[in-house]
Amino acid sequence: MAEHVATGSRSGLRSALPLLLPAYLWLTVAIFLPLSAMVFFSSMTELPLSGKAWSFTLENYATFFSERLYLTLLLASLRLGLEVTLWCVVIGFPAAYVLAKVLKGRSREAIFLLVILPFWSNGLVRIFSWAMVLREGGILDTALNAVLPFKINIDVMYSYPAVVIGLVHSYVPYMVLTCYLTLQAIDDSLIEAGRSLGASRLQMLRRVIIPLSMPGLVAGAALIFVPVVGSFMEPRILGGRTGTFYGTVIEDQFVAVFNWPLGAALSFILLAVVLVILALTSPVLRRAA
Amino acid sequence: MRMSKLTAFLTATAVFTSALTLAATAAEVHVLNWKGYGADEPWAIAAFEKATGNKVINDFFNSEQEMLTKLRTNPGLYDVVMINAAFNDQAMAEKLIQPIDVANIPNYADISPDKAGSPMLIRDGKVYGVPWVWGLTALAINEKSFETPPTSITEMWNEAHKGRVVIRDDAVEAVQFGAITTGQNINDIKDMEAVKAKLTSLMPQIKTFWSSENDWNQMVASNQIDIGTYWSGSADRAKTHFKLPVSLVIPREGAVAWLDAFSIPVGSKNVAGAEAFINYMIDPGFYVEWVTKVGAPVSANTKAVAALPEDAFNRKVMGDPDVAKRIQFQAPITDAQREAYLALWQELKVNVK
């Protein structure tokens, strides 16, 4: 019997191979190879492209630890990642709940479309439209002053909040989608059972809905946190003089000074830090889930 | 039988297409330059193609580093490349560009001797770059915010403009700007601490760091800034082309000057076409039209500048001998200096948080 199961699963793998192959080939070509090239670059003194002599070194990694600047920026970026993720939960989770449990039929489709809409426009376009909204004399400022009886001055452009707003807007659909999937899978009879046993709304949320939708929350958080920590476009455009983060410094190394080795080393340190954070939090989150 | 017919057909097609491509490349001029910087103006390309029969194909770069990378990785692709004179030396040392036979470029004789003779463009008596235009990184003001234009660079530090000052997000430019403010030679900065202290005190004044002409113009259009560093050609373009309340100020402390020149890459397949294109780019006819239609920096060709109206900014202000005394031309920068400048600039930007 056991033998039979074993051969069965092996042949399952064999028949699955043609289905897996395109994805893994693509991953090898598009991710594994460039990443290995970057590992290689990060341990070089010079880029061979520039025609100068080069050798292997760990100097680039040492730079991270010898300059306080990089640590400060990494912490600032991690904080940004946490804040954006938190706001995405606060905004995205209720929306996902309404989509999954309250709305039905046509209205659900319409709202769903609105959630996915940001994905259909280019990221840069979205950021520039925020720039028009947030600045002094911009759309938000003008609109509020037209309605309110007293004069207020709204100029959030070129500040930390502007960066958070821009990033939350870009990433909240991920949270809505992942939470929607897990919330929809919750059996309505569980909710009815809870109600009939006299649980209040808050108790229902705390004891039934949030625990059952935890996988979606965790997946959404990971999908958001990782790219936000390394983001550079939004901070650069919306952040003004406060817009220097770990991601922008990496970009500078690649674009402004052509120091690919240092840029690559900084990227790998970021990758390592993010992996460590995910590894540390995953048992806690899995228990919660 | 069928197979061989097919093979014959394929061979014929291949021969035919390769003959076509050969014929085409012979008359193509591949140009590498900044986007929207003269060489890609449709009217200019049309005029050049009509006059010489060459076809122009433009390609662009976003930074000098990218330009060098494109030359390194595509040998033989480009026929003309626009290089800031401060980078010419590096391109020559890496054997990316070849000496130019200026006898084939009639307009070269009209280039002002100080530009043509720049040691940055000539090595061992050979010409590696044909000076095209030059300009300044100086200050520009929002005319709505000033009764009379300021004359000193220290206006950037004036409390009245707090939060309404911009500076370009570029380490080299920022450090050289600091050097001018502290009365130093931009190409030989002795007191880096003074530069750092001066720039540190500027940070609280800053609204944002601009990176493109468009950033600057938009902030002026929405009246968000008073003053900032800006390029002379861009300030001219903002005023003449976009009708914005912008005017350039060349402070009494001085300004950073740069010189852009055309070079011919090693392995160019159409050197004659390249020479014709460079000749056209420094021609007075093209220059006057460029200035009038779009706005441009100052031509290195003295006849081209003389062809402008008396009161044109590029002739009156930029041609003023008093201005010439104040400005300092950028010399080449080593990689080590560039990285040191970036480290300083990043530190300043981080401490402001």
Automatic annotation (TrEMBL), chain A:
Keywords: Cell membrane, Membrane, Transmembrane, Transmembrane helix, Transport. It is a multi-pass membrane protein. InterPro entries: MetI-like, MetI-like_sf. GO terms for biological process: transmembrane transport. One of its GO terms (cellular component) is plasma membrane. The chain crosses the membrane at residues 23-41, 84-103, 110-133, 158-183, 204-226, 262-285. Residues 74-281 form the ABC transmembrane type-1 domain. It comes from the Bacteria. It is found in: Cell membrane. Belongs to the binding-protein-dependent transport system permease family. CysTW subfamily. This is Peptide ABC transporter permease. It comes from Mesorhizobium wenxiniae.
UniProtKB/TrEMBL annotation, chain B:
GO terms for molecular function: polyamine binding. It comes from the Bacteria. Keywords: Periplasm, Signal, Transport. Residues 1-26 form the signal peptide. Transmembrane segments: none annotated. Pfam families: SBP_bac_8. Gene3D superfamilies: Periplasmic binding protein-like II. Coiled coil: none annotated. GO terms for biological process: polyamine transport. GO terms for cellular component: periplasmic space. Its main location: periplasm. It is found in: Periplasm. This is Spermidine/putrescine ABC transporter substrate-binding protein.
